[in-house]
Amino acid sequence: MATSLLRVAPPEELLRPLAVPERLLLGPGPSNVPRRIQAAGGRQLLGHMHPEVLQVMDEIKAGIQYAFQTRNRLTLAISGTGHCAMEAALFNLLEQGDTVLVAINGIWGQRAAEIARRLGANVYELLKPPGKYFTLQDIEQGLVQHKPLVLFITHGESSSGVLQPLEGLGKLCHRHGCLLLVDAVASLGGAPIFMDQQEIDVLYSGSQKVLNAPPGSAPISFSERAREKLLRRKTKPPSFYLDMGLLANYWGCDGEPRSSRDLLCPLCPQGLESSWERHRANCTQLCQGLLDMGLQLFVEEEARLPTITTVKVPEGYNWKDITAFLMDNHDIEIAGGLGPTVGKVLRIGLMGCNSTSGNVERVLGALQDALKRCHRSRL
Amino acid sequence: MATSLLRVAPPEELLRPLAVPERLLLGPGPSNVPRRIQAAGGRQLLGHMHPEVLQVMDEIKAGIQYAFQTRNRLTLAISGTGHCAMEAALFNLLEQGDTVLVAINGIWGQRAAEIARRLGANVYELLKPPGKYFTLQDIEQGLVQHKPLVLFITHGESSSGVLQPLEGLGKLCHRHGCLLLVDAVASLGGAPIFMDQQEIDVLYSGSQKVLNAPPGSAPISFSERAREKLLRRKTKPPSFYLDMGLLANYWGCDGEPRSSRDLLCPLCPQGLESSWERHRANCTQLCQGLLDMGLQLFVEEEARLPTITTVKVPEGYNWKDITAFLMDNHDIEIAGGLGPTVGKVLRIGLMGCNSTSGNVERVLGALQDALKRCHRSRL
């Protein structure tokens, strides 16, 4: 063309190839992606309806059923992050005016309550300080007082490092005519969860934590009880993209399954139980090392999330100096707090292939170095 | 562990490596992914806040501004498909009771109307048969009659193969106090679009068409007029994940940018105008070849979408026999109709790196072969 009609020039930076440094990602996610999943991400695409894709989608479903320990029919992967799966769960479970009780001991409960309010639900909050978990008594009191249709609770609260005990919770909810919705984004594969035996009605997770895949595929499953609630809806969910009725039909004829399939691979060769045990053992080693350095853990022993450990910011230090020092001098990412824990804790993630004894030693060594070399104010 | 608590066994299929056949994807999307973008998809992850990621996000923004020909500040990529971007546009633009006029000449207008209804908007439909486009007169009549706050229209209607002319439409809408929302999922990069000069208020696209990337990143941009409507909202959008107010803040500190960045690369070295010209030329060659075979095109010449060509199903043939024959014997995907065009047309996509003269010859040869060898009923 003789005269260009273009008024906005192409950005020259995009002509340079992308440089991605190798870093050890020991924050609360994403975690590192092992070679096999990286390779899957580099494969050619297929179409939605190709026979290989339909086959792969069945395999993904079976993989999620294994990871969740469920036989639910309504089990699939959503095209979005774990946060998108949280919206899918709430968009489908709740209608305007439905009463929901949200257990809040960190940012994820806060977020669920915020989304439920956007949907016009009748939201009650059950509060605990960050670092604490809910007992069955706490929950029962809330159920009796508010008579919710749905209880939201976080299994792995990544902002505070708490692992919420789930035993008996499903049965309790069902005794009170309430559905149990559990967020397992930060815990799935790293700590035991048994969707069917624990009578969890809706369970979801993300791909970029223990599953060591890029974000963008989120496993989710609905029990028969939950499915019945969806079928009884009087209004459609606001989203078409996340409408489980449509997704259930589509599933088998939609998707970008390449890395979703492989995201479940890390769990299969070794098995779920060995994955749980490995996460437990490496978390124990990390906690002991932190205590040996004179640091204080944020969560009491019985409720520690094995995937993300929270340690109090050592006195006299600025947490940002420590995370920046690890990044700049050791190529290791760890994180500060999130939401209610900002400024209070450092968060160290050991998830999936990153949960190794060697990485524990590496991050402990780097922290030692940081405590020696970062600025410390006089106490 | 001595006795396993696991009741659901790991699926053995997931232990086998994934096999992905090489196919030429000449359907309405996804298109093939070139080696450079495949390689980007196989890279290690970085964290949301790493300096390289913030840099890459600025580059993505500049790339989208170039592809859209806009200087809008509120320009970013959503973590989802093009369909997810449609929801993001509608979720943010519309509030309960807002009047929206939806131009429907295929499935995407139908979908937008459906989502707007889920949001409680006051939806009016402006209808044309599939294969036809809207004139300024058609639109003006609708604007005068319904006084909408937003007009939705599809630039590249992939179900019918229509390219909607946009010249004068933005000015017309603004004269009537209406915002112009344009879906360019199937057209961006393959046909000229000038967001600022054409006074488009909200524009979005997807990644798996002309941009030749996996689905999962969707570019979107809002004009100042549109931004003001967002700021005037009385209620929050139902989704937190797609809340543009939050995304605008986050953008620069969230994301999985690897393939998003590289998805814009195909447009940069060659330039937008040469991409448009190449798509036009190869579409013309394809259409001529189809006519030479005695086939009939579904859309009149002035409104043909250069990325997806619709040809009437040849008399006496079952369209499924033809698409299956191409897949099985030539490793080429083409598609049947969608929504209102099911059973009426075959759809051939030539998008991004797939839009080459060689691929036109390949698909024409395969179609010749199919017409010879597929079953034909007596007429």
Automatic annotation (TrEMBL), chains A, B:
Domain of life: Eukaryota
SUPFAM superfamilies for the chain: PLP-dependent transferases
Binding site for substrate: 347
One example GO MF annotation: L-serine-pyruvate transaminase activity
GO BP terms: glycine biosynthetic process, by transamination of glyoxylate
EC number: 2.6.1.44, 2.6.1.51
Gene Ontology annotations for the cellular component aspect, listed alphabetically: peroxisome
Signal peptide region: none
Pfam family, any one: Aminotran_5
Catalytic function, reaction form: L-serine + pyruvate = 3-hydroxypyruvate + L-alanine; glyoxylate + L-alanine = glycine + pyruvate
Keyword Transport: no
Keywords per UniProt: Aminotransferase, Pyridoxal phosphate, Transferase
UniProt modified residues of type N6-(pyridoxal phosphate)lysine: 209
Enzyme class: transferase
Known cofactor(s): pyridoxal 5'-phosphate
UniProt domain Aminotransferase class V: residue ranges: 45-257
InterPro entries (alphabetical): Aminotrans_V_dom (IPR000192), Aminotrans_V_PyrdxlP_BS (IPR020578), PyrdxlP-dep_Trfase (IPR015424), PyrdxlP-dep_Trfase_major (IPR015421), PyrdxlP-dep_Trfase_small (IPR015422), SP_NH2Trfase/AEP_transaminase (IPR024169)
Keyword Transferase: yes
PANTHER family the record matches: ALANINE--GLYOXYLATE AMINOTRANSFERASE, AMINOTRANSFERASE CLASS V
Subunit organization: Homodimer.
Family statement drawn from the similarity comment of this UniProt entry: Belongs to the class-V pyridoxal-phosphate-dependent aminotransferase family.
Full protein name: Alanine--glyoxylate aminotransferase
Gene name as annotated: AGXT
